Amino acid sequence: MVIAGPSSVHLARNISSDLNVNIIEPDLKIFSDGESKLRFPSVNNKHCIIVQSLYPPPDRHIIQLLMIIHKCKKDNASKLTVIIPYMAYARQDKAFLEGEIISIEVLAELLENFGVNEVITVDIHNKVSLSYFSVNVKHVTAIPILAEYIKNNIILDKFFIISPDTGGIARATKFAQLLNLPLLCLKKKRDRDTGCVSIDENIGMKVEGMNAILVDDMISTGESIVKACEVLKKQKIGKIIVVCTHAILLGTAFEKIINSGVKEIISTNSVPSICSKVDLSIILSNILLDANLSDIKD
Ligand code: R5P
Question: Residue 284 maps to which CATH number?
Answer without folding.
Answer: 3.40.50.2020
